[in-house]
Amino acid sequence: MTDSKRLRIAVQKSGRLSDDSIALLKAIGVKLSIRDRLLIAHSTNEKIDLLRVRDDDIPGLVMDGVVDLGFIGENELEEKMLERKASGKPADYEVLRRLDYGGCRLSIAVPNEMPYAGVSSLEGKRVATTYPFLLERYFIEQNINAKAVMLTGSVEVAPRAGVADAICDLVSTGATLEANGLEEKEVIFRSKAVLIQRKDSELSDEKQALIERLAPRIDGVLLAKESKYIMLHAPKAEVEEVKSLLPGAENPTILPLAGSDDTVAVHVVSTETLFWETMEKLKALGCSSILVLPIEKMLG
Ligand code: ATP
Ligand code: MG
């Protein structure tokens, strides 16, 4: 069973957030031995246990202090927070880190044939959704008198089934909506995955220290993903011009090249990639051996 001295992290067992969350844990050096059917997985090198559950359960597990951390989509987190507040349950948490995956939006979509002239067209309508609290909050903000009809699945077929007039569901590409004869009209919430932490002072010093050791590694992984290492050979006379072309290259490293007095090597870590157009301009300036390399890890 779980040992209360080990940091407990909830992660979606199988779904859109699972692979990226596990990959992130591995990237920050947490070795895991996951057996597909088991609810709990242990880390072999850190005092960490993973609780593998449905994503719906993750906000509550963190808010009730059953786990210390959880990987969750902001949509599910915000919905559960509103739901728990409404029923008087603890709903506190802290966002430890915002992450770069699980991007989607919660949108209202209406059947293609339904006349739509803005949110006011939803007045008096029934809207099927898995996110009734987020939707009702939106109706209140917009001063619309409409009804959220809770469905836990197959939301997109609700209008055809006569269960609702419109829907409010998660969208990433819009292909599912289109396939069901629906048109996206209003984005009510934009979401990404986050790593949340229980909000109380009961965390032992040891667990707190572990979190403080791992959180900067997450920053390192995120930063490395969006950064590139750029190397090129440049004519000495053009170094200033070259610098001005390189994105985010205020302080490049300039190195002499053996056997060449008028050419130098320029190395720079950039938070943007180098576009083909810029590479062509550099080449036109006389640069050569232009390399753009991915960075695996970054610290400090
Ligand atoms: P579970 O069985 O764990 O309850 P689920 O069916 O509720 O799974 P998934 O479809 O795996 O959940 O989605 C989990 C989360 O992934 C969503 O809550 C959302 O934050 C994010 N997500 C990203 N893109 C999409 C998308 N196109 N559709 C739905 N969710 C998405
Ligand atoms: Mg779910």
UniProtKB/TrEMBL annotation:
Q: Where is the ATP phosphoribosyltransferase catalytic domain?
A: 54-219
Q: Does the keyword RNA-binding apply?
A: no
- Cite the Histidine biosynthesis HisG C-terminal domain residue spans from the record: 224-297
**Enzyme nomenclature, EC number:** 2.4.2.17
Q: Name one GO cellular component term.
A: cytoplasm
Cofactor(s) needed, names only, are:
Mg(2+)
Tell me where it mainly resides.
cytoplasm
Q: In which pathway does it act?
A: Amino-acid biosynthesis; L-histidine biosynthesis; L-histidine from 5-phospho-alpha-D-ribose 1-diphosphate: step 1/9
Report activity regulation. Feedback inhibited by histidine.
**Per UniProt, which keywords does this protein have?**
Amino-acid biosynthesis, ATP-binding, Cytoplasm, Glycosyltransferase, Histidine biosynthesis, Magnesium, Metal-binding, Nucleotide-binding, Transferase
- Reaction catalysis annotation: 1-(5-phospho-beta-D-ribosyl)-ATP + diphosphate = 5-phospho-alpha-D-ribose 1-diphosphate + ATP
The record's annotation in InterPro entries points to: ATP-PRT_HisG_long, ATP_PRibTrfase_cat, ATP_PRibTrfase_CS, ATP_PRibTrfase_HisG, HisG_C, N-reg_PII-like_a/b, N-reg_PII/ATP_PRibTrfase_C
Where does the signal peptide begin and end? none
Specify the enzyme's EC class, one word: transferase
Q: Which GO terms describe its molecular function?
A: ATP binding; ATP phosphoribosyltransferase activity; magnesium ion binding
PROSITE patterns on file: ATP_P_PHORIBOSYLTR (PS01316)
An example GO BP is: L-histidine biosynthetic process
Where found?
A: Cytoplasm
Alphabetized NCBIfam families for the sequence: hisG, HisG_C-term
Physiological role: Catalyzes the condensation of ATP and 5-phosphoribose 1-diphosphate to form N'-(5'-phosphoribosyl)-ATP (PR-ATP). Has a crucial role in the pathway because the rate of histidine biosynthesis seems to be controlled primarily by regulation of HisG enzymatic activity.
User: What family is it from?
Assistant: Belongs to the ATP phosphoribosyltransferase family. Long subfamily.
**Mind telling me what this protein is named?**
ATP phosphoribosyltransferase
